[in-house]
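During the reporting period the student researcher (J.K.) took over the structure-prediction task from the postdoctoral fellow and processed the backlog of single-chain submissions. One of the processed entries is reproduced below for the supervisory committee.
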Amino acid sequence: MTIRAPHVLLVNDDGPPSDSSPYVLELKIMERHQLHYYPIRDNFQGTHPETQKCWSHQRRPLCTERGEIGEWLLVDGTPSTCTNVGLFTGDALFQTEHPIDLVVSGPNFGRNTGAAFSISSGTLGGALAGSLSGVRSIAISFCHFKKAPPTLDQRESPPLTKEAFAHYAGIANRYSAKLCAQLWNAWDEDTQVQAYSINVPICESLQRPEVHWTKVWSSQHVQLYPLPSMPDVPTRVEPLGVHPKEDDDEDPCGPYLAFRPNLARAMCPADPEPGTDV
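J.K. obtained the following structure tokens:
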């Protein structure tokens, strides 16, 4: 029996193709389904700087001579907002009638493992918004390693070069697309499942990939907004990019609560539980 390819809504937390969103275009190509894309307006770059119509508030026909393969719709909102717009407003925007079968959220630039990261993740939020709307959904996240990425023979390895990183990211996209297809084809047997979360490590082990069915590690948050008086915290903690001005005749501004979390507890369990996603 031939299984019909789903009509996929692709959303993303890092924006359309750019240096800060390097995966989404290749995943779109790998999926090879009819896709719409509703990313947040963030970190986007025009690929054709000679024209202002690269990103525009007006629609225009695709320019295949430039290699354009699809239309990207930018939404100033969270991935869950993008999912809702795509599911319930997309047909009105495009004057079409294409009910969405599957929401794919990602690939995220960074992993989403453990409960603390997962419930805070915009990427998982995009997938959960789909499942809460009665549409099957999959979140995809790519795990990065700043140092000592995993290797096939457990040897010490330096950080990946830019070329190696791009190579393994391409492999990750191919396998992610295959996993999405397999999950979709088997979904009728998993009637209690509303959403899946896929985490893919960008490292040498992708040359011999293994798929592990896991549960979410029960990680916890610690203090996210330290006070200046706490140990190892600068005397004056300020939000990034904010430099308030103070007049000489005014009282000095009070301390700022800035987002300066210590994520070690949420990333690296001291005693990892077998069968979890860390």
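The committee noted the following: Strands lie at 8-11, 35-37, 102-109, 136-143, 195-201.
J.K. will present the remaining backlog at the next meeting.
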